[in-house]
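Researcher: Please predict.
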Amino acid sequence: MEVFDCGYTVATPGELKDVPANARILTIDLNGRSAGALLEFRDLVKYADLTHLRIQTTPVLRRPDQFEEDPHEVLDILRPPPGLHVLWITTDVAVSDRNMALLAKCTGLHSIILDAQLVSPAVVRALRGVPALTHLDVGVRERVRVSETTTYDFDRPPRLEVYGEVLEALSGIPSLRSAGVQLVHWSPASTVLFAKQTAIVALESATIDDAALQLVASNNTSLKALHLSNNHAMSDVGLQALHRLPKLQELHVAGCSNVGLHGFQDICNVKTLQLLDISCSETDYTYEGQELLTHYPRAPFASPRGAEYDNRFAWNSKKGEQNLKGFERLKELRVLRMAGHCYVDGKFLAELTSCVPQLEELDLSGVARNPHRPDSLADNALFIWQGEDAIQALTRLSSLRVLRLDRLLIGRDLDSGRQFYAHAPVNDVVLQALATMKTLESVSLVGATDISAAALGGLSKLPKIGDLNVSGCQIAGGLAAALRPFTELTKLTALGAIVDTVDVEAILKMSKLTHLDAAGPVSLTDSLLKKLVAMPGLESVAINCKDCTRDEVLNLASLRALKHLTLSLKLEDPSAFRREFEKRRPDIRLCLVPLA
């Protein structure tokens, strides 16, 4: 799948006049509006050279309750050029038969991402005439970033339902290598046909049940990746089919509420696994409309049922100790994600690290919940690991490169809005131990509240440290003091951790930075922005420029290495600013977050 790294981004029809007719990459950002706004764009027929088209809605500007179904024919309006290679439609609007009939004429397409819930099997069959099509995701649902005041509808069902006839139609696309579908209304015959006639190596499904999973595994032994997160139709029975997948390297079963002890043993029998995600829930990160501070779990773990999930795994029981030894069979495992599990203490970590000492990435975000009140959502559900046992266990991972110890939001009182957290037990003692792990390259400590500047600064002694996430951290002694020793850091994420311009000045002295995410309530000044412009290596930047003048903000275009720029600022005419900026640097991906 290709990534849109550069090109032209337009938010209003007037901005199209600044896009040359030979443009290859174009993003239409609806900026919080419904797909009906596309009527203003009419068609793109003049862009004969267009190869990449994305239609999106800026997620920071919308909440889930603002989404509405839109009857407009998205692609019928735009008339996609016949030379299109990649099409992404990541708005919350389903395309229909008229849309897909137009798409089938784009014979050069090799990647399509859209919501096809209104498409009939007959029109899906038309895609068989697209010989280069290798990736097709017909179950897109926009992952929306919202502020902490937003109320989620955790019980909202999946929107896409792929019927057996549609699945059978997809089976006739012989070039497919990666597919994203949600198998709701399926038939055994169509599922077998789909599995047999496609060479898919990555299947993404949120609603496949036991019988369908067994049929797919029996008829497509070339699968390398299975994405089944938040799938409540699948149980341990379905996972028995995993042994039929000799090439499976990646398995995602985060938030699967009916998977337990027996299913975990079947997972551990897949000796080819390199990545395993058994987190309690798939999560989103947010902070005041920005990315990466707290987790919003999807159903059913917006309630104390997260503890029931651990009880099924039984990490804290005698059976659980035997169950944990299943990890020993995963000799190829390099990435393990188990955010949100309770009963993770020193004893657990000692056993885990002895079973999989080869781990290179480990996610233990929000693992510590009160073991005496496992169903409690109390704010003080802080359970520090069993001291030196846990710390010594972690330090035995001699190949570990990436470690996540984030705070995890496990629930919300929808009446009062009160939030309940599980806290990763990070304190100065833990940081001092991490400072001895010479292989660490990336550390995430989102939401840590019991750390000092001296202990955090100690991580700068790690010879390979290049990525640090301190979003939402409360640091005794201040962020500026903590960051001063980091002279070799290349990536810093500090959403909500910056409290004044002193912190910003410390960041701007980190000359090796290539990626900086410092969005939040503290705005840069013109003088600080000039220092930022003097950092030539920056490739990705997210900052608050509310107090900066327009001319100084436009000077960011002089950063020659810059590819991605997210700006929070006050603008009377955002479209005019965007046009002026992209005239200077059309290759930069620009995202504007208007502030009141």
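Model: The first helix runs from residue 74 to 78.
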